[in-house]
């Protein structure tokens, strides 16, 4: 399942609650402050490094991945332009 970054905080909160963990428990397991977990759950990423996010997500049984966004690649655009010029 993929999700936009804007939904990451609510997903972290939902997964944490499913496990019956408090923010403090999750923070301690991840080696973070409770306030950092709260910031994550509010999508406030200004001062949070990617490795901290990764630790929290992995404790919750998920992983961060890169996925294609569905936008065409440069090769797709070049091929489409070539095809258009042949039919035009």
Structural descriptors:
elongated, 434 Repressor (Amino-terminal Domain), 88 residues, 5 helices, mainly alpha
Question: Can you characterise this structure?
Answer:
- By secondary structure, the chain is an all-alpha fold.
- It has one domain: 434 Repressor (Amino-terminal Domain) (Orthogonal Bundle).
- It is 58% helix and 0% strand.
- The protein is built from five helices and no strands.
- Helix 2 packs across helix 3 and helix 2 (23-30) packs across helix 4 (50-59).
- The model has no long low-confidence stretch (mean pLDDT 89).
The CATH architecture can be given as Orthogonal Bundle
* Overall radius of gyration: 19 Å
In percent terms, what proportion of residues is strand?
Answer: under 5%
Find the structural class using helix and strand composition. Answer: mainly alpha
Q: What is the global morphology? A: elongated
Query: DSSP helix count?
Result: 5
CATH topology: 434 Repressor (Amino-terminal Domain)
Extract low-pLDDT stretches.
none
Number of folding domains?
Answer: 1
Ordered list of secondary-structure elements with their pairings:
Elements: H1 8-18, H2 23-30, H3 34-41, H4 50-59, H5 74-87
Provide a concise account of the structure shown.
The protein has 5 helices and no strands.
């Amino acid at each position: 399942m993929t999700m936009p970054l804007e939904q990451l905080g609510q997903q972290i909160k939902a997964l944490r609650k499913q496990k019956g963990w408090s923010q403090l428990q999750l923070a301690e397991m991840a080696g973070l402050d409770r306030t950092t977990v709260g910031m994550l759950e509010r999508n406030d990423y200004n001062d949070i490094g990617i490795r901290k996010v990764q630790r929290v997500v992995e404790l919750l049984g998920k992983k961060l991945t890169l996925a294609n966004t569905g936008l065409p690649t440069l090769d797709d655009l070049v091929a489409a332009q070539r095809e258009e010029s042949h039919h035009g």
